[in-house]
Amino acid sequence: GTAGFVLANGSMSSNQSGEGGIRRNIVEAGLVDCMVALPGQLFYSTQIPACLWFLARDKKGAPLPRAGEGSGVRARDRRGEVLFIDARKMGRMVDRTHRELTIDDIERIARTYHAWRGEKDAGEYEDIPGFCKSASLEEIRKHGHVLTPGRYVGAEKQEDDGEPFEEKMARLVATLKQQSAEAAKLDEAIWNNLKELGYGD
Fold first, then answer.
1. Domain locations in the chain?
2. Among the CATH numbers 3.40.50.300, 3.40.50.150, 1.10.357.10, 3.40.710.10, which is that of 2-153?
3. Looking at the DSSP assignment, which residues form a beta bridge with residue 133?
């Protein structure tokens, strides 16, 4: 079967009180199926950032419970792999102190997980920089069995604006020079005003 837990973010990386060893044993036993880093301010009772752990007892391609008994539909063999989803940038602020995941956010996370598992009609899974990554057990070992999704998903891909690098740098340097000159004029005006008030040299 599969089980899900909501835990504090520290559970993904802490080495205090033997937590690192417990986490390593769970990973090496092949029980971790998916890790989801959630955005902060989701809960009314605490501001502590949380994460989702999904554990699966059998990752070798067991029949899918929701596929219907006797259907023969199976998830793909996921042994030696863990899915990481970084959802920290998702959601919207509903008031000054609380954030809420939208229906689209929840569906995107769920669809990504089901596609990675190989479930029928869930679509084709692919790694998306900055959002999700299917990592091997060897990669996780290299990170000391730390399960923070941000370590694996990488940076979000930036769209190319089509401006050549040399032209962009020349434009940015020119803008910086202009802003520096304006800042110098402003500093001079401020000092002149202070002198008139008797506070300058």
1. 2-153, 159-201
2. 3.40.50.150
3. 84
Beta carbons of 37 and 85 less than 8 angstroms apart? yes
Q: What spatial distance separates the first Cα and last Cα of the chain, rounded to whole Å? A: 78
pLDDT (average), residues 77-103: 94
Q: How far apart are CA 79 and CA 12, in angstroms?
A: 20
Radius of gyration for the chain, computed over Cα atoms and rounded to the nearest angstrom: 25
Place of tokens 């923070």: 148
Tens digit of each residue's pLDDT (9 = 90 or more) over 8-51: 999 999 999 899 999 999 999 999 999 999 999 998 888 888 99
Judged by phi (left if over 0) then psi (alpha if -120 to 50, else beta), residue 96 lies in alpha
C-alpha torsion sign, points 93, 95, 96, 97? negative
If one counts every other C-beta atom within 10 angstroms of the C-beta of residue 64, the result is 17
One-letter amino acid of 8: A
- The tally of CA atoms less than 13 A away on the side-chain side of residue 60 is 2
Confidence check: pLDDT of 199 > 70: yes
| The token pair that represents 79 in the structure block | 């042994």
Residue type present at position 170? A
**DSSP annotation of 157:** P
Q: List phi, psi (to 5°) of 11.
A: -65, -20
